[in-house]
Design a protein that fits this description.
Layout lengths: L3 H13 L9 H15 L16 H14 L7 H7 L4 H12 L7 H13 L5 H18 L4 H12 L11 H18 L3
Helix pairs in contact: 1-2, 1-5, 2-6, 5-7, 6-8, 7-8, 7-9
């Protein structure tokens, strides 16, 4: 398990640029440690595992039939399971402050980190989601392109377990995608 103090130290190393000097595995270490601390390490006993975050329609149908037959499901209450893999407001503030300390433009490592976090967390504050969208727009404008890492972050924001509307793309998400695409196109246009 990664403690909050260790995560702060890792984020400080990353921001200072000294982390990258530690070798080629630094980026993956940072991403794994931060995601484990903020989204995965807080799993309550009997909470959600990685496999639970992927749709298993056969299992869903069996559980629905069981629920109809038995009148309830034997699992923990949803609120207990959600608390297990959610990012708290305080944790989100620490992460947003660390990633936004040098401005809204994110490095590829920071974009990958956010993509993994949004792909795994089943709940997080809206302020964290708003930061991710704004930072992504600033990053696309600065890079003058929408990279594969950027696309992964968009995908995680739109289809992740805590996305606004689940499987469907909400109107606000569609507006953000169109806006980011327009920013990327405008920054490539020499006119």
């Amino acid at each position: 398990a990664v403690s909050a103090g260790e995560v702060r130290q890792l984020l400080d190393l990353h921001r200072s640029g000294r982390g990258a000097a530690m070798g080629p595995g630094w980026d993956d270490l940072l991403i794994e440690a931060v995601v484990e601390h903020f989204a995965l390490d807080h799993a309550a006993s009997g909470g959600w595992a990685d496999a639970d975050l992927r749709p298993d329609w056969g299992r869903a149908l069996r559980r629905t039939v069981d629920a109809l037959a038995l009148g309830s499901l034997p699992d923990q209450p949803l609120s207990t399971r959600l608390a297990g893999t959610s990012v708290s407001a305080d944790s989100a503030r620490v992460l947003v402050d660390a990633l936004g300390a040098d401005g809204l433009v994110l490095s590829p490592v920071e974009v990958r980190l956010l993509a993994r976090l949004f792909a795994h967390a089943v709940a997080y504050p809206l302020s964290m989601r708003a930061f991710a969208w704004k930072a992504l727009a600033a990053t696309v404008a600065a890079d003058r392109a929408l990279t594969a890492c950027d696309a992964d972050l968009v995908r995680a924001l739109v289809t992740g377990p805590a996305s606004c509307d689940g499987i469907a793309v909400s109107r606000s998400e569609a507006d953000m995608i169109v806006g980011i695409t327009a920013i990327g196109a405008a920054s490539r246009d020499p006119a």
